[in-house]
Design brief:
heterodimer, A: alpha/beta, 7 strands, B: 18 strands
């Protein structure tokens, strides 16, 4: 599947406290309201201007810290279609896949804010249409890919009723 | 084949011979969430269509992050949790009982257990030789419903610690020093396994401090051997019969190894806004501090308060600082009370908060104003962590926190020994 969209660029070490700030703890059961504050300390206009189909391209260790799944959940709610980074923190990685958000492990240094990308989810190839360049991605584990393809862990289990380890 | 500690625990649990890199399904001995992650866990359980928990008596919800509730929305979340527990038989740890991780080690976790919590500091229980790891709400919902989860058996980063802690230097200084060395992603996806002479002599409380912060280096777990110290701890907590000895095999394969000697360590502090941004306390004496937080799952236990009380006895906090003290659990609270430390703290000018997360997560009980500086014994100093992205958080040991309370500037606690 091919996706096209615009990039929002973020730094290394974006924590889940940056994505879903603790001061809005009381909005966790109200994701649409919490989403209005997504990443607001990093980019004040992100939450109001991000469009369905946009991508996030970030630096190393994206999503470190707290296990709050509200962080990937509000990015999904805002329409972020995939997240690109050279590395992801472990819990965030699982959480995003569990919610059906594609994560692409790739160098992002050559990507700038506003670049237009074409992402092929099947092959993992990323074309930077603005810069006319191609980026490679590292494969994610096959079992996680299965979960992602099902649209997340809940729909995976609805189909499979139980875990089945491939192979 | 020689096994790391995590390979051994997961092999015993699954009844298979597993090693790093294997994808496995494992039973979970305990699954839990807290008041920040619990409502979403419940929502996901409901969308799974499961109306029964696999092990209700091993399913817990802790009201610790926003407790007592500072807002109506959060009081409502607490009700959601209580109602769900009433329906399903899950256990609720009420407001004022304390932090999930402390109650886990005090009352529930045994060596060799697999513990899954919807909170990143679930790794604290690794101090008892259990495989304990944090996950998100969906994974925990599935663990609660099915009683199991999938895991990739992680590679191990072995940390061998030798030497004797000099006066004024503690487990917290060691773990901050280690994270400064290997970085906030230095153990990403790996288990940090601690061993060596110094570890053999460490108290359970010190092990919890270190294990809790293994996630700050990206660790999937922070594991300690289950040894005589573990046995004595379990006996004191009335479950000595649950003890079993566990340690890594000689010749186990490690992805990375590091040797640290604590002999030359100095009081260490992590500076805003990243845990691996390390400095020595003595080099930060120009930093003025407004608030000091003594508590959290990392340093909210009796031993931590004993160290702080020794420095604060017969002393008064600097007039420009607020010292906030939060025992990690109700049991710790009782112990601190009996030991007379509460008197010491109150006489020094401290405010005692109820058992729980207190100021750690920026929901209540010590939110910072713009440009305010806090020295905290907790485990994270990310921007905005204490409720305000314009606040500045430094992390240090309880001794450093106590010394800093007296001077109003970040202070090397050896000045007060
Ligand atoms: S004390 Fe802080 S780090 Fe520990 S569980 Fe509570 S909020 Fe999390």
């Amino acid at each position: 599947m091919k996706l096209k969209g615009r990039v929002w660029k973020f730094r290394d070490n974006i924590s889940t406290d940056d994505i879903a700030p603790g001061r809005y703890f009381h909005l966790r059961s109200n994701l649409p309201e919490l989403a209005k504050h997504a990443l607001e300390g990093e980019n004040a206009v992100f939450a109001s201007r991000v469009k369905a189909g946009d991508f996030i391209a970030a630096g190393e260790n994206f999503g470190l810290g707290s296990s709050r799944e509200h962080a990937p959940a509000i990015l999904k709610l805002l329409g972020v279609r995939a997240i690109l980074a050279p590395s992801f923190a472990r819990i965030f990685f699982r959480n995003a896949i569990n919610l059906g958000i594609p994560l692409l492990i790739t160098e992002t240094a050559s990507i700038d804010e506003g670049d237009e990308l074409e992402v092929n989810l099947t092959t993992g190839e990323i074309k930077n249409l603005t810069r006319d360049s191609v980026l490679k991605t590292q494969k994610i584990p096959p079992f996680m890919l299965e979960i992602l393809k099902a649209g997340g862990l809940i729909s995976y289990l609805a189909k499979n009723k139980d875990f089945k380890i491939p192979g | 084949m020689a096994k790391t500690l995590v390979e051994k625990i997961l092999s015993q649990k699954t009844g298979q011979d597993v090693s790093a890199g294997d994808l496995i399904i494992t039973l979970a001995d305990i699954a839990f969430a807290q008041d920040g992650t619990g409502p979403l866990t419940i929502k996901q359980l409901e969308s799974l269509g499961f109306h029964k928990l696999a092990n209700p008596e091993k399913t817990f919800f802790f009201l610790d992050h926003a407790a007592p509730s500072p807002r109506a929305e959060l009081a409502r979340d607490h009700i959601t949790i209580r109602e769900f527990a009433r329906k399903t038989g899950a256990k609720v740890s009420e407001v004022g009982m304390g932090i999930s991780h402390q109650i886990m080690v005090e009352s529930f976790v045994n060596p060799g257990d697999v513990v899954l919590g919807a909170d990143s500091h679930t790794v604290t229980s690794g101090g008892l030789g259990a495989f304990a790891t944090g996950m998100g709400s969906t994974d925990i919902a599935v663990a609660m419903a099915l009683g199991k989860t999938w895991l990739r058996v992680p590679e191990t980063f072995r940390v061998t610690v030798t030497g004797k802690f000099p006066a004024g230097i503690f487990a917290k200084d060691l773990i901050l020093h280690l994270i400064g060395k290997i970085g906030a992603d230095g153990a990403n996806y790996m288990v940090l396994e601690f061993g060596g002479r110094t570890v053999d002599g460490m108290s359970a409380s010190e092990r919890f401090t270190i294990a809790s912060m293994s996630v700050e280096a990206g660790g999937k777990a922070g594991l300690f051997p289950a040894d005589n110290i573990t046995r004595v701890y379990l006996e004191e907590r009335g479950r000595g019969e649950k003890f079993k000895s566990l340690k890594a095999d000689p010749g186990a394969i490690y992805q990375r190894q590091i040797k640290i000697t604590v002999d030359g360590l100095e009081p260490t502090v992590s500076q805003p806004h990243s845990v691996d941004n390390i400095a020595l306390a003595k080099d930060l004496s120009k930093v003025k501090v407004d608030q000091i937080f003594l508590g959290s799952c990392t340093n909210g236990r009796l031993e931590d308060f004993a160290v702080a009380a020794k420095i604060l006895t017969q002393n008064k906090c600097h007039p420009d600082v607020r010292l906030l003290v939060a025992p990690a659990s109700r049991d710790v609270y009782m112990d601190v009370l009996k030991a007379g430390f509460l008197n010491t703290f109150i006489e020094a000018g401290a405010t005692i908060l109820p058992p729980g997360c207190g100021a750690c997560v920026g929901v209540h009980q010590g939110v910072l104003a713009d440009n305010e500086v806090c020295l905290s014994t907790s485990n994270r100093n990310f921007k905005g962590r204490m409720g305000n992205p314009k606040g500045f958080i430094y992390l240090g040991s309880p001794a450093t926190a106590a010394a800093t309370s007296l001077t109003g500037r970040i202070t090397d606690p050896r000045e007060f020994l």
